Amino acid sequence: MNDTPFPLPEKAKRDRRAILAAFAGFVFLAILSWFGFYPGTMSPDSYEQYEQAKSFRFDEHHPPAMAALWNFLLPLKNGPQPMLLLQVGLYFTCWFLLFKKFWSDGQHRLAVAVGLCSLAPFCLNFVGVIWKDVHNALPWFFVSIIAIFFPPKRRLSSALLLVALWYGWMVRGNAILAVLPLIFLVLHRKERKLITTGGMVAIVFALFFVGKTIVHDVILKPSHSDPYSRAMVHDLAGIAHYGGEPILPPTLVSDNPDLKRQLSHYEAGDIKSILFENPDGNIVLQKSDPVAMVDLRSAWLASVTGNPLAYAQHRLAFSLDFIHLFRGRGYYLREIHFSKPAKEAGVPTAYPTPSRIIQAWPLFWERWPFMQGWFWVMGLLGLGFLGFRLRAVPDGQKILALSSSGILYLGPHFVFGQAADFRYFYWAIFCVILGAIILLARRSRKRAPETIQSPS
């Protein structure tokens, strides 16, 4: 006798039709997003990486993994279009996989809610921006979905997921610790003891470093510079602003005779006020000069240890800006056309009409809490608390891994951050969403009536 309450073939047909319709809907949204973001929104960082991709010459200030991938895609078309196609395709693939999972499991309301979440302004707003933050968050989002809802049974599948995690780790330096809980997600199994999984995580993490060394030093060979140089200059300005006496590096002073006055144009949440919008002239950083960087690091360390109160005030002010606390609005996507670098790079800046729709959508929600960093920090902490309470069950362990990854990713920004951009929360947003989905799915399973089996 059949144990299911409905004829299986008919139910399977209905599910197949619904999933195919959803697939067509996600394809339509992907096409609309493609035209809306075309050819891909570029920032100053994007232009720098594009130049590196074209020349295949890299600088360590922007981890070269993303530019190397861009170089690989350039035969398709010069410009940001191949990267836009990759980002849009991966984004909607993630949401379709989640929809398919819950619809196939009979959790139709959750499936529809997940589908609508793909249009959330705090998720959609960065999909078309060619940024390292997007190339960190989207591969990790995909890997987390597969590891949590479609756990791979083959070693090759797990290895491919780890490669995607490795790429996301390579494009963002502050992701160094945040990747550990995600490696756990990929490797952990019910039948495997936690201590065994922990050992495997440590081995894989070590292999990540080996892979980075090989790719960087043997293949890509980026010029060495200090990626935290701007943050250190920002700290020197903050210490001076709050009444401290920062040590000014001699090499930096020689390149910037008006350095003391330049540092006075300080804003807690934006390094651009010093480096790029300084009315006394932009500060010159000789990042490729090892002597200058050693000089800057020594001066920074002496300034921080010699002025701990001023440094703490500066970092607190930055942190409040970073989480957008006491601010009127959060950060949303603004298309800023940099005509000169765009012309030099050969990137078109004429955006079609659909981009106005894409822009109007996040702009409409700009003052809502979910467009501000503190909202997602609270979400991570709340998930961490719930995950700790449920740590004895698989769902709790997954939630705890996601919240830990989000917290470990954001943590370095409070110490080394130099711009209070909302884009740095992109991975944290996906962590909170996935954790909430796990909780909702768990609640839905508990409420579902048990299937009454017919006697055989």
Plain-language structure description:
The radius of gyration is 24 Å and the shape is globular. It has 21 helices and no strands. It is an all-alpha fold.
- The poorly predicted ranges are 451-456
Q: Give the helix tally.
A: 21
**Biggest beta sheet attributes:** none
First-last Cα distance: 5 Å
Record field, number of beta strands: 0
Percent helix among the residues?
55-70%
Shape: globular
Please write the string of helix (H) and strand (E) elements: HHHHHHHHHHHHHHHHHHHHH
Mean pLDDT: 87
Give the helix/strand class: mainly alpha
Instruction: Compute the CA-based radius of gyration.
Output: 24 Å
Share of residues in strands: under 5%
Helices and strands, with pairings:
Blueprint: H1 8-37, H2 44-55, H3 65-73, H4 81-104, H5 108-117, H6 121-124, H7 132-149, H8 155-171, H9 179-187, H10 194-220, H11 229-241, H12 250-255, H13 259-263, H14 272-275, H15 290-306, H16 308-322, H17 339-345, H18 354-364, H19 373-389, H20 394-416, H21 426-447
Helix pairs in contact: 1-4, 1-18, 2-3, 4-5, 4-7, 7-8, 7-9, 7-21, 8-9, 9-10, 9-20, 11-15, 11-16, 19-20, 19-21, 20-21
Short description:
The protein is mainly α and 456 residues long. The chain has helices spanning 8-37, 44-55, 65-73, 81-104, 108-117, 121-124, 132-149, 155-171, 179-187, 194-220, 229-241, 250-255, 259-263, 272-275, 290-306, 308-322, 339-345, 354-364, 373-389, 394-416, 426-447.
Features:
globular; disordered C terminus; 66% helix; 456 residues; 0% strand; single chain; mainly alpha
